[in-house]
Write a structure and sequence with these properties.
Layout (H helix, E strand, L loop, with lengths): L5 E3 L8 E7 L23 H11 L7 E7 L4 E7 L2 H4 L2 H5 L5 E7 L14 E5 L2 E11 L2 H10 L9 H11 L5 H11 L2 E8 L4 E5 L8 E4 L5 E4 L2 H6 L3 E5 L4 E6 L2 E6 L8 E2 L1 H6 L5 E2 L2 E2 H16 L5 E4 L5 H11 L7 E3 L6 E3 L3 H6 L1 H4 E3 L1 H4 L3 E6 L6 H12 L4 E6 L21 H4 L2 H8 L3 E4 L2 H11 L6 E2 L1 H4 L8 E3 L2 E3 L1
Parallel strand pairs: 15-25, 18-22, 22-23, 23-24
Antiparallel strand pairs: 1-20, 2-5, 2-11, 3-4, 3-5, 6-7, 7-8, 8-9, 9-13, 10-11, 10-12, 13-14, 16-17, 19-21, 26-27
């Protein structure tokens, strides 16, 4: 199918991917229990199936491809395919992935094209052993590292920055796993939450700023879990233990969990958009419950930009928590207002740009009884290009809304992200080109207001003061580490 015939929801921001992995210790020597009764046996513990469930819970983080790699202690097998988890896996695939260690990945392409060659986990074999790597994030020095590796004889099968990580680890593997990981992580720059699997161990690592999330969980019978979000730990009946700290590596093997820092401790800079939009509402990231944070954003938004109205509604799904918070703070009744067609995925056929924009009418529709003849406050998480917001105003007015007041539970997105979010260039970001009054006119609303940067941080701080520290580069242009700049909308180092 021609890529020009695909509709992409390009008026929202997309996260790059999610990782999920499990480790079950081997049966201990001297244990007299039979294999049938042994909770540590591969028969009782289907690692691939656990990862399959975990990936389902992380599907919102990427729908382009999915994959699972499994180790039985002596070799690693992998299955990857394009599409969602449901598209990628059939029962026979899981039946062929037997083992007690498994590593999975769901991907949305920001670095590298959407092809099977770029699907993860990526596997590299050598005489010293086999490793599989799944990566959430984006390397800003990918091109330089790839060039260096190619000059020393490495060949690449993909355009993904994850393959650079795999080859760097493999290149240093003769020094031992711990040294290979440390050497690799000190070379890569950007955001990364890594899960790495060998035949006998599972490793998790998070970049020194903690931009992308990664957490540790545990099974009742002693197994361990690594996940991008805590909701995936819940999905496999595990217990959340803690977040992997910025700059931390954890190595999980039959002896337990070994933790060490691979560099100097830096300030935590979790991507604040995890709380605004990306993470599932039932997740807790770095001590901050996502739903609570979104409600606080709505409350803060009400303090900053209240307006007389009859009803408050939220744009499904990530605008709902902020809408409830706004309603609570103002006393204005909350209503459903907008219904989302949940059977429309990220891509579907539409031959022209105008039809692409009009597909908002297919995905979202108003509830006339909630909005007819009323002054309506609409809460959304962000405005990227403005096309969805304009269509939403049209939908609500067509349903009889007397006034439509748009409120955004984050500041204006004015700058690109270099750390794993598929952000358009500045020339395509409506807030980088127009002020709030101009945007209001363009989308056809009666009024428009954004949450202030200080208000956003205050909302997150109110949920967990001790976990304060965020990357907010897409709002301010100030990033945790030096990044390529943009000149006239084009990247320039």
């Amino acid at each position: 199918m021609d890529d020009n015939n695909l509709i992409i929801e390009d008026d929202v921001l997309h996260e790059e991917c999610g990782v999920f992995a499990v480790f079950q210790p081997a049966k201990k020597e001297g244990d007299s229990a039979s294999a049938d009764d042994d909770p540590y046996s591969a028969q009782e513990f289907n690692a691939a199936q656990k990862v399959y469930y975990g990936l389902y819970s992380l599907q919102h983080r990427g729908q382009d491809s999915a994959g699972i790699a499994v180790s039985d202690g002596s070799e690693i097998k992998v299955h990857k395919a394009m599409g969602t988890v449901a598209d990628a896996f059939q029962p026979e695939h899981l039946a062929n992935l037997q083992g007690r260690i498994a590593l999975g990945h769901v991907r949305y392409a920001t670095a590298g094209s959407c092809t099977i060659e770029n699907a993860q986990p990526m596997v590299q074999s050598s005489k010293l052993g086999t490793i599989a790597v799944a990566h959430n994030g984006q390397l800003i020095n990918y091109e330089q590292l790839r060039e260096m590796l190619e000059e020393t004889g490495s060949t690449f099968q993909s355009t993904s920055d994850t393959e650079v990580i795999v080859k760097l680890i493999a290149k240093s593997y003769k020094k031992g796993l711990e040294r290979a990981l440390t050497d690799t992580i000190q070379m890569i720059k950007g955001s990364f939450a890594l899960a790495v699997m060998t035949e006998k161990s599972l490793i998790g690592a998070r970049d020194p700023n903690g931009i992308r999330p990664l957490c540790l969980g545990k099974f009742e019978n002693g197994g361990w879990i690594l996940a991008s979000e805590s909701c995936a730990i819940d999905a496999v009946n595990g217990t959340f233990v803690r977040d992997i700290q910025p700059g931390e590596i954890v190595i999980i093997n039959d002896d337990g969990v070994l933790s060490f820092e691979f560099g100097e401790r830096t300030s935590k800079r979790t991507c604040v958009f995890e709380y605004v939009y990306f993470a599932r509402p039932d997740s807790v990231i770095d001590g901050i419950p996502v739903t609570e944070a979104r409600m606080k954003m709505g409350e803060q938004l009400a303090k900053e930009s209240g307006v007389p109205a009859d009803v408050v509604i939220g744009v499904p799904d990530s605008g709902l928590g902020a809408a409830i918070g706004y309603s609570k703070a103002t006393g204005i009744p909350y209503a459903m207002g907008i219904v989302k067609n949940k059977y429309i995925g990220r891509t579907f056929i539409a031959p022209t740009q105008k039809e692409r924009e009009n597909m908002v009418f297919v995905k979202l529709n108003a509830v006339p009884g909630d909005v007819k003849g009323k002054r309506v406050i609409v809460i959304d998480d962000s405005i990227v290009r403005g096309t969805t917001s304009r269509r939403l105003v049209q939908i609500l007015r067509r349903a009889g809304a007397k006034e439509v007041h748009f409120r955004i539970s984050s500041p204006p997105v004015k700058f690109p992200c270099y750390f794993g979010i598929n952000t358009p260039s500045r020339t395509e970001l409506i807030s980088a080109q127009h002020d709030t009054s101009e945007i209001c006119k363009q989308i056809g609303a009666d009024s428009l207001a954004f949450l202030s940067p200080d208000g956003l941080l205050e909302a997150c701080r109110a949920c967990s003061p001790e976990n304060y520290g965020f990357c907010k580069g897409c709002f301010t242009g100030e990033y945790p580490i030096s990044v390529p700049g943009e000149v006239n909308g084009k990247s320039a180092v």
